Amino acid sequence: MDSVKNIINFVFPYDGIYEVILGSNGVKPNLAPIGIIKDGNTLKSKVYKDTLTFSNLIKYQKCSLNIITDSRVFFEAFFNELKIEDYIDNIPIIPVGVVFLANCYYEKLENPTYFFYDLIDYKKYGEFYHAFNRGNSMLIDLLIHVSRLDIYSKEDIEKYLPIIKYEIDIIRKTMPNDIKIIEKIKELMLQKGLKI
C-alpha cells in the first residue's frame, strides 16, 4: 500500500463525511477540526468566512489533513489548546497516524465556501486507519436505543424518538453507502408501531 490514491481510498473508504484536523497557515498557523466530504474521487469541505481556516486557505492554498481518531485531540483543536510544534512546508501537522499534504482550491467564494483538496503526498507516523466518521459512532448509539424499545416505557420512547430521528439523519448524511442499515432499522421500528 504505497500510492497516495491507495492510501486515500483506505483512509476514506466510502463516500461520506469524515472528521479530520486541518492544518493551515498564511495569516497564522492553525489546526482545526473539519468535516471532509468524500464524493467519488473528490475530497472537499465547507469552510466559513470569518474563520482562521478560511483566511489561511485564501492566503496560502496548501494544507495538511491529519487523520486522528483520538477525540481528545479534536477537543484540544476546537479550543485552540493544541501546541503547534511540527510543520511540513510551513504547514502545521500533528505527527500521529497519517498526515496528507494537499493543494487547496475553491471554485466560487460563498459563505460557506467549498474548498477542494488535491492530496499530493502523505507522511506515515504510525498505523494506517480509517478516518473518523461520526456516523459510525451514531450507529452504535442508535442500535442501543433501538434495542431498548421493548423495555422502555411509553414516556421513554417518546423522549428518545427525536434522538433516534436525529441519529438516523446524521447516519444518512455521513454514511450514504450504508442506507440499507437505516432502512432495516426503520422497518423494525415500523413493526413495533413507531414511525420516524
UniProtKB/TrEMBL annotation:
<dbReference type="Pfam" id="PF20766">
    <property type="entry name" value="DUF447_C"/>
</dbReference>
<protein>
    <recommendedName>
        <fullName>DUF447 family protein</fullName>
    </recommendedName>
</protein>
<feature type="domain" description="DUF447">
    <location>
        <begin position="18"/>
        <end position="122"/>
    </location>
</feature>
<dbReference type="InterPro" id="IPR007386">
    <property type="entry name" value="DUF447_N"/>
</dbReference>
<dbReference type="InterPro" id="IPR049288">
    <property type="entry name" value="DUF447_C"/>
</dbReference>
<dbReference type="Pfam" id="PF04289">
    <property type="entry name" value="DUF447_N"/>
</dbReference>
<dbReference type="InterPro" id="IPR012349">
    <property type="entry name" value="Split_barrel_FMN-bd"/>
</dbReference>
<feature type="domain" description="DUF447">
    <location>
        <begin position="133"/>
        <end position="187"/>
    </location>
</feature>
